[in-house]
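Q: Structure tokens for this one, please.
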Amino acid sequence: MADTTPIYAFSIPTVGGDTDLWGGFLNANWNLLEDILSGTGQLNGVDMINAVIHAVTADIDTATILAGSIQADASSSFSAPLILTGAPSEGVQALTTASPAVNPASGGPICSWVPSNGNNTPAITLTEGQYVTLHILAGTGTYVWAGVTWLNGAPAIVPSTVNVVEFFMINGTIFGAYVGAV
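A: Here is the predicted structure, written as tokens:
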């Protein structure tokens, strides 16, 4: 009786013992391989070294390759540096309330915010290693930055211009840095 391979269960006929069964085993193996290569079966344990991937959609671990780009979810990790070529881009969020949720997971690490002319209390939500750039567009209100440790002090937002503030989380602390006004 034929053995099978441990991962894909390909048939391994017994030499001299599976007379007249080899054709059936071979056909079954080709069908399994066809499923794996066509995407209806699961590809398991492939190490790609110096590979160029041409795919419309291919699921690789927790990353997705879409027509030459890579999108990774929050649980993705890479064992080697991720080198990007071309023009990478990230989402830009438009924030309009006096108390916006500033969170890169909600639409990208760049936020454009039109604050109110009253009290503004943005809620900065980051996880370890995340960052967000906040473009504050022409507002004359006051600002409360709860839970932020400021590098060089909290920003003095310049009214009637664009102000840029960077936030990032390291060791469980959200840091803020005022870049300046344009």
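A few notes: The chain has three domains: 3-38, 47-82, 92-181. DSSP finds one helix and 15 strands in the chain.
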